[in-house]
Amino acid sequence: RAAIAEVFAMASNTRQFEKLCRRLPAVAARLASDGRRQALMGVVSALSEVQRPEARGLAASAATTLARASAPELLAELERTLGVPDGVSRDLAADLVRLLVGCTPHVVLDHLEHSQNAALRDMLVDALPVAGAGLLPVLRSKLGAQAGASALALLALVPLLGGTAADLAQVSRSRDPQVRHEVARLLRTMPQDEQAMTIVVRYLSDPVLELRQGVKMLLRGDQFSPQVIEAVAGLLADPQQLGDDLHRRLLRALGASRHDAAAQLLATQLQPHGLIESKATGELRELAALALHRCPAPAAQRLFREALVSPVGRVRKACERAASEPR
Fold this sequence. Notes:
mainly alpha, single chain, 19 helices
């Protein structure tokens, strides 16, 4: 590489430099076809070292042309040599990655999807956000429900490219628990919207306990859609499986919803479930009554007034106590 850089430095001081740059694509194609990827990388990187002001534009244009034409080969060489003894330096690798992202971001993204080199994956993730949100549709197409652990590096790009929970909708259904954990982690860094709540409520039934425990902190009732409220109703139908803590969180979340379906669900939670109830059940009823009292849904106050005059003493008393609390 040093020898090539010296040749380019000397040529840049002559009138033959433009002619040399025009011939470089053919040279690069020959190097690529011969499998001489290290030499190819040396040619591209040496062009960036041209110092003569009058020649820099030609050198940069030539480097971009070569990088665009030889991106798969250059990335394969970085994959092989970055982070190994006597391999490519991190500075040189970073320069090449920036150049490749600037001219062929989709090729770089394709390589990231399958890269086994941790150092290169980190470098690509750091560089690709420069490509902007236009890369998101391609990224989404790679993050399907069948995505496995190899998708973890791609997932890291979603928020860096300005993505939202909608970009995680399909991959959130992955069978790989590592992927689902990463989706849940990313949701904590994103705006909590209806799509986020769709994923969060689905994960409340995930077979992995740690994941269930983590996502319950993300519940936002003001972002519940009618479909999410229906899913919550399914969870509340089996209170023994919920546990008291999640039960409370769901009731509070419903109390923040503006949908009448949430208010109706809270009203059903007031009703007795047997002749004898535990203390915890009574406390949950009082929480449901308070949530209904404070619920901003249009039908909430009518349902609350009906519960205040319920013939069931336990329901009526819970609502009377809730009515004494500020809205």
